Amino acid sequence: MQNYNDTYRKKQAQAIRARQLEGMLLAIDDYCADQFPLPVVNEIARTGKYGGYEIDAGPFKRSTGTPTWEIQAHLLPDIPLVPLRLASVHAHESGLLVTIQDGDQFSLDEVWTADKSFYDLLAKVNQRLATDHALGAVAWELTWEDGFEQKRPSTMRLMNDHVSVVCSSAAWDEQNNQLVAATLVSPEAQSFRAITATLATNSKKGLTLSADGVSHYLNNARRGFTAVSGGLSQSGAEGHVLTILHPLTGNPQEQTADHFYVLVAKDQDLQSVFSERLALAIPWPTRPEWAEFLLSAGLEKDLLTHLNTSGPDFSSALCVQKNSSGWKEVLEAGIARRKISL
Length: 342
Known about the structure:
Radius of gyration: 27 Å
Distance between the termini: 55 Å
Mean pLDDT: 82
Strand content: 25-35%
Structural class: alpha+beta
Shape: elongated
Number of strands: 19
Helix content: 10-25%
Largest sheet: 8 strands, antiparallel
Low-confidence stretches: 47-54, 231-237
């Protein structure tokens, strides 16, 4: 197990908590509003909400040692006193598990990506925690399993007009602007329903896949994707995971489209999966041992193309044409040149 500690943040939080446990109501400077789950002094003092109090006057007194202000609670009784709690964050492939000092745990759909440092990730977590004043949590420690740091994924998100979902793995067809497969992670299942509804709609609405700093606009399939859902409890986290597959990743005989998709999971072999799927799609007999030749010849004849994949779940993906005359020519040429034999 590896870890990174922000001891400065921990000391600040402990100092604030000590004052709170003494009964002191504290507000934070506005430049620290995204670091601690405390009320912001300028917002409290804003004219209209609390009678037009001014900073350095009325109920406010500058605190020492931390970027906070002491408030006379009897003058502003509707501001709750919630003592800060220290939290540790554990990074894993599907997101983050937050453990608060009293043992409470919850998951965040924030994936530790390759472009974020230890400090940047904790800062991003604290930005989210700072919005929940009732929780009162401050993250100061980051942990991860040995080797995970080198396997961190690139940032990916799948978005429609209203929802953005973390995408841990994806395969997509840029030529046809189609999402072929994706593994989505979210603290709530409602986000998944919004994404799958966009994929199946008959309207012109589409999705945007943000991967490696590039945005890819994807058309909807106008039919339902195959979806397999589950929870993150086995990994010690809360939340949901959903894998979605384009209809053309199924049996080619059941689809009328002129092409189909070959999706290869991380524990599968490309040649064997491709051979099985092609045998279902064309009327000509094939053999598993021909797969290497057919892959090479199919690429040369533009009968198949490699698709984009990112993340750990899918090792490769193909778009394969059902062009029976084209595959017949490939087979005949292979036999004539003794690349394959009956």
